[in-house]
Each structure stands twice: as C-alpha cells, then as structure tokens.
Amino acid sequence: MSVLPGKALILVENLSVPFDRRVWQECQTLRDAGWEVHVICPQGTKRDTEAEVTIDGVHILRYPLKAATGGPAGYVQEYGSALWHTLRLARKVGRGGKIDVVHACNPPDMLFLVALYLKRQGAKFIFDQHDLCPELYLSRFDRGEDLLYRAVCALERRTYKTADVVIATNESYKDVAVKRGGKAPDDVFVVRSAPVVERFHMVPAEPELKKGKPHLLAYLGVMGPQDGVDYALRALASLRDEVGRTDWHAVFIGSGDAFDAMVALSKELKLDDQVEFTGRISDEDLLRYLSSADVCLSPDPLNPLNDVSTMNKIMEYMAMSRPIVSFELREARVSAGEAALYAPANDEPEFAKLIAHLLDSPEERARMGELGRERVAGPLSWENSQKALLAAYAAAVR
Fold this sequence. Notes:
By secondary structure, the chain is of the alpha/beta class. It has helices at residues 21-32, 72-94, 112-119, 133-141, 147-162, 171-179, 229-241, 259-268, 283-292, 312-319, 330-336, 348-359, 362-377, 382-397, and strands at 7-12, 36-42, 52-55, 58-63, 101-105, 124-129, 165-168, 188-190, 215-220, 248-253, 275-279, 295-298, 324-327, 340-343.
C-alpha cells in the first residue's frame, strides 16, 4: 500500500541504530517509500558512537546513556535521562520543519510523553510495541504486582490512549493491544520482526571455530535476566554430566546486563573449557559462527513475556538454515514451526537430550534448516512486514 510521504521521527531507547535491526529495516522501508526519516536513539559503546550522522539517507541523532544496573530504581534513572535527551533532540528535529509522524519503539512506555508534545504540533503517533512492559516487569524482577508494576501498567494504558496507530510484532501482541489497550482492531498492524534473508547467507564452515570438537552449538542474542542463558548453561552441564556428551563446543554471541553473571555461571558449572562468550561481534563474524554451527539454542524460559514474544534469534537462526532447540513457548512455535524441537517449558535435562538427538541426526538437522529458511523467505518474510508497516503509516495520516 502506498502512502503520501512526509517527515517521520522514530524514537528508540533500548538499542542504538542501525544496530537495532528491526528499527533499521523500518527506516529503510520508509525511506524507500519516500519518507524523510529521522531517528533519535542512545549512542552505542563500540559502534554507533557518533552524536549525529546520516546513513543511507536516514538522519540519526544519538545521546549518551548509561545503562541501568541493579533493580527497578536503576531503570527509573536510565529512562528519565533518556526521556530528557529524546525531548531535547525531538525539538531540534522539529525546528527543521513539521513532523508528520512520531513513531515510538518501546521499552520503555514513557515515550508517549514526547509524542504528546509533538501531537500538539500536528504529528500523528504510532506506537511500535516491541515488548509488553507489564509482562517484562513481572518476568525480570520477580516482585509480583507491586506498586511499580501498577505504575508500569498505567504507563502502558496512557501510551495506548495516546497512540493513533499501534504496531504489534505478532498476533499475541495485537490481542493485548485490542483487549487490554482498547484499540480498534483496524488500528493495530502486525509487523513481524523478520530478517532480510539476503543479508543472511552461508559462508564456508570453519572447523577451527569448534575448538577441536566435532560439533558447534550457538546462542545469539541479548543476555538479560529473562533471556535464559542460565538455562542454556545448565542444559549444557546436563548434556555433559547426564547425557555424557563432550563432543561439542558452544559459543554465546551477544551481550547484556547479565553477561558477567553468565560468564561467572559457566565457570561455576566448570564449562569454561567448552563455552566461549564473544560479546557483540560484526555481521561478518556472525555469519562465520552461524555457518559453522550444527545446532542453535533458543533457551528463553516460559514466563509471562517470553510465551507471547517473537524471538529475533529464532528468525535469524532460520534465515541461516540452522536447526533449533527451544522450550515450548506459544510464539516460538508460531515462528519456528518444524524448524525447531521443543523441550517442555524450562526443562533443562530434556533440552539437553534434544541437543544430543540433533547432534546424532545430520539429515534431520538439514531438513529442519531448509524448513526454517523457507519460512523466513516466505510467509514470515520482511517483504510481508513492509506492506504492513506502510499500511500502518497510511492509516495514521489518513
């Protein structure tokens, strides 16, 4: 669906751009449709460090941000700083001409305050819901439905109320926007997170990445308390101790506020001779590792957030034709289908047994990899999500 191009301002707090692949793909889609695209986001630490830059026609303004540590109080400080910088830079973008659409990506659910300011100047507000923040709070902090939880719910309600259009990453999120957020179904558009498959391609396998072992296991993604890296490590200990398999090396690619704790846990489990943590790596190195991997891990445990969330790691594993082991989660199965094997929720020994099964089944691994690639190149493709994104913008400015 075509849209009348205008000036779009995309707000991101969780990651820098273009490191945030979903947001960068949205930027490119809008640019190609004729939109003038501006982005406000935090600076990265090793990449995306410039305060202001134009990349491939997309104007990006970045601000310094210290990531939260500890409990909820740290996030209040982080989000307060991000909100101040975002408003400051939004005013700067606005001085260059009217903003037609402000497109805010959560978390946190506080960016509606910037959207309110811009709506008074005639902008339309699109809420791009990357996470369900109430479920994220419950899953991350284990504090129950306390005062802060109720505050998080109130911020979500205000965000829904302020939004002219909502973008959801899957049908589960759309149901929440309609039932909990009170949005009309026609004002909620599902824009799935999907890799551009052309960017993910096999390169020659490098046996040296397996550190002398026959098999390589790979994890790719953020390492936060709710992301299940600890489940993966305990499953690998079970693979070694209970299944009796030591014919593998495992690589964990990515970073996050649980990174140091996960490195420490691997040492505590005496896995440090078989487990490697790379931190964030280049796209070229990512292709090298995934091309050499035999099995990819998606250890996100069952919790209120993960059960209804689309995991980017699953989509990228499938784009690389890799077989997957996952816990049984509603949206994980929607994404991966038969490209994954599913252990009962949070059952680490069964997760380990499924890894062992795939290590012994090269033909099944190949079949699952082909099925996954077909899914992300077909029904789950970014091409389909592009159409939904442009439809959301058309609805916002109609």
